[in-house]
């Protein structure tokens, strides 16, 4: 079974903004057994409202008889810095003031977050990671991390994400934050500040996570007589209520801002120059109906990362296809590994022939 741990970092942690955290903790989950060579590590980066428990939200990828069987792999996932599933975030107590951070928690970028992840990696003494895999916000973080530590990550599986967050994506996120700001409680320093606004924010987000076809299939009304209380309307309310039970508006705000900050080309001479330095053998996966991270973004990555692979998932679920189409995603990753093995065998054959 997966095991939960807490990593404590006791020193000051300077952020890209110049702000400083007086230490932090990361809640993380491990599953499987590390082999003597430490060559079977898979590191997972979760999406915006995900947790370190990857067997919960990516259950069909991890487990006995599945793609990443714990009998063969050692899987790690840390709840992001700024999160609300055990890692230091806005609801945590600031050790300097002995009060919860709330609105005083400093703004994070993906670069800050993966630097925190890397401190955990060093604590675990992993010099190499077989596969780094992430989707959506987690895909952004995985790509950034693979660029920060090019000699650590041997393979990158980058799912439904991008190299730089788009104006379209930023506009969606700002629309959600506008909803949070409209909640009068957002001005207070309480655990539930902005909760009602976050419900609306989540409803807005669902329109970017899903697709016209998703709603048309699942929320269509039977018959022709109804004039109010539509299924689609109640579904939006349900999604808002659902997120309010497990998340907080501070972290929602903070991580949507981190997503907006994503740009691997920042201070690296631009996106193309940055991608040219990526050493990990890379697979870029897109979803054909993804409105938030459209396939053009994964194709751009594929075109600018030499020797990379690309796979297209076909789904009616839009961006959320990466959470639904497990069979296609499993096949894409298996093919990626097989192609690599074929290339290695070919190289070995050519060497013998010489």
TrEMBL record:
Residues 41-325 form the AB hydrolase-1 domain. It comes from the Bacteria. Substrate binds at residues 202, 320. It catalyses: L-homoserine + acetyl-CoA = O-acetyl-L-homoserine + CoA. Its main location: cytoplasm. InterPro entries: AB_hydrolase_1, AB_hydrolase_fold, HAT_MetX-like. The keyword Transferase applies. Keywords: Acyltransferase, Amino-acid biosynthesis, Cytoplasm, Methionine biosynthesis, Transferase. The keyword Acetylation does not apply. It is found in: Cytoplasm. One of its GO terms (molecular function) is homoserine O-acetyltransferase activity. GO terms for biological process: homoserine metabolic process; methionine biosynthetic process. One of its GO terms (cellular component) is cytoplasm. Homodimer. PANTHER family: HOMOSERINE O-ACETYLTRANSFERASE (PTHR32268). Belongs to the AB hydrolase superfamily. MetX family. This is Homoserine O-acetyltransferase. The gene is metXA.
């Amino acid at each position: 079974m997966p095991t939960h741990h807490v990593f404590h970092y006791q020193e000051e942690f300077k952020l890209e903004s110049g702000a400083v955290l007086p230490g932090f903790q990361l809640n993380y989950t491990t599953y499987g057994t590390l082999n003597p060579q430490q060559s079977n590590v898979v590191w997972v980066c979760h999406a915006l409202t995900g947790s370190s428990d990857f067997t919960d939200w990516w259950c069909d990828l991890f487990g006995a008889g599945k793609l990443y069987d714990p009998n063969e792999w050692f899987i790690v996932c840390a709840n992001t810095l700024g999160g609300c599933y055990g890692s230091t975030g806005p609801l945590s107590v600031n050790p300097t003031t002995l009060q919860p951070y709330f609105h005083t928690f400093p703004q994070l970028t993906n670069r800050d977050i993966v630097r925190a992840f890397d401190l955990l990696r060093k604590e675990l003494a992993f010099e190499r990671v077989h596969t780094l895999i992430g989707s959506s916000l987690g895909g952004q973080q995985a790509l950034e991390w693979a660029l920060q530590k090019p000699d650590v990550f041997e393979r990158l599986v980058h799912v439904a994400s991008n190299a730089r967050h788009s104006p379209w994506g930023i506009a969606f996120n700002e629309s959600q934050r506008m909803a949070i700001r409209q909640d009068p409680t957002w001005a207070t320093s309480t655990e539930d500040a902005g909760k009602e606004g976050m419900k609306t924010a989540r409803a807005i987000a669902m329109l970017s996570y899903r697709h016209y076809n998703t709603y048309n299939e699942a929320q269509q009304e039977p018959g022709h007589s109804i004039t109010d209380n539509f299924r689609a309307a109640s579904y939006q309310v349900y999604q808002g209520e659902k997120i309010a039970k497990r998340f907080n508006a501070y972290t929602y705000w903070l991580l949507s801002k981190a997503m907006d900050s994503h740009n691997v080309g920042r201070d690296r001479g631009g996106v193309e120059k940055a991608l040219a330095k990526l050493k990990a053998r890379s697979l870029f996966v897109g979803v054909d109906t993804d409105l938030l991270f459209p396939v053009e973004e994964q194709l751009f990555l594929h075109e600018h990362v030499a020797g990379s692979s690309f796979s297209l998932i076909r789904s009616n679920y839009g961006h959320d296809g990466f959470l639904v189409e497990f069979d296609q995603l499993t096949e894409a990753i298996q093919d990626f590994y097989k192609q690599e093995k074929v290339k290695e065998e070919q190289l070995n054959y050519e060497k013998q022939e010489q």
